[in-house]
Amino acid sequence: MAYRYDILSPEQSLQFDAMTFPAYRRFLGGGGVAAGVWFKDEPAGLALCGQGNGRTTAELLSLYVAPFHRLGGVGTSLLGLAEAMLTAGGMDKMHTTWNETMTGSPALRALLAKRKWCAPYKRLLTLRGDMSGAFGSQVRAKYPRYESADCVPRGYSLGPWADMTSAERAIILSKQGQPNWYAPRSNPFREEKFLVPNMSQVLRKEGEVVGWLTVHRTMPDTLRYTDVFIRSDLKRAGAVAIAMVTHAFWLHMAEGTPKLTMGVERDNEPLIRMCENRMAMCSTLGWTWGAEKHLGV
User: Fold this and answer.
1) Are residues 172 and 284 in the same domain?
2) Is residue 296 part of a domain?
3) Residue 123 is inside which H or E element, if any?
4) Crossing angle of helices 105-114/74-88, nearest 10°?
5) What is the mean pLDDT of the segment spanning 108-118?
6) pTM assigned to the model
């Protein structure tokens, strides 16, 4: 078969909009870098890239080959074109992420290996549950003591985000990037217009803000547990995190939205164990994986 590989112009890339996720279509027509493959003047595959963390790092947002054209090396060639294009543009590194529950996950892993990307690594465990079904039943049956905000260890207290004072807000903002605190990418005030203030919580120790749990509405029937943060130098942080999240489950049931999703960083071992050992039978779990490649090597 005769394929034509192109670095797509913004106008051309719009013809490939069905070949990427809806959330990434804004990168077509400008703002992203797209490599495409044509077959008889029809789109057959797309590699879409965006700016990663750092000026010389690119992110592979999506890679898609139409079913009829798979298993013939088209995806490998398409990724190779994207890598060459980014190298020529001064990029030093590429990275990508995907969820293991994705249908094309095994094929993507094989393709990255062919292109000599690094071995994939776990990044985030995603939990999905239904408060109106088995997940809510598990919380009610196994964790009744967490219904009260007094469930946190001695010396700590939980309060609703809505009750945070302006002085506490200023303190949180002043701690960004400081040792034991949070990185700029985890600013709890991002996406604030979607935050659910009576479910999101502020954690205090002896009256001082030391952590939080932020919850955002992503769909009418779904809430996302976005950030679970506790100052890293505190003892018993694992027990506190479990108490904070499980209390949020009770708040969630009272709020009434049926579904939840939560991402847990791979180094948050207490919450990972809770999800995998206690909640696995009543939820859907899946790891998000990452991989990277140094270009020009």
Assistant:
1) yes
2) no
3) strand 121-130
4) 60
5) 95
6) 0.78
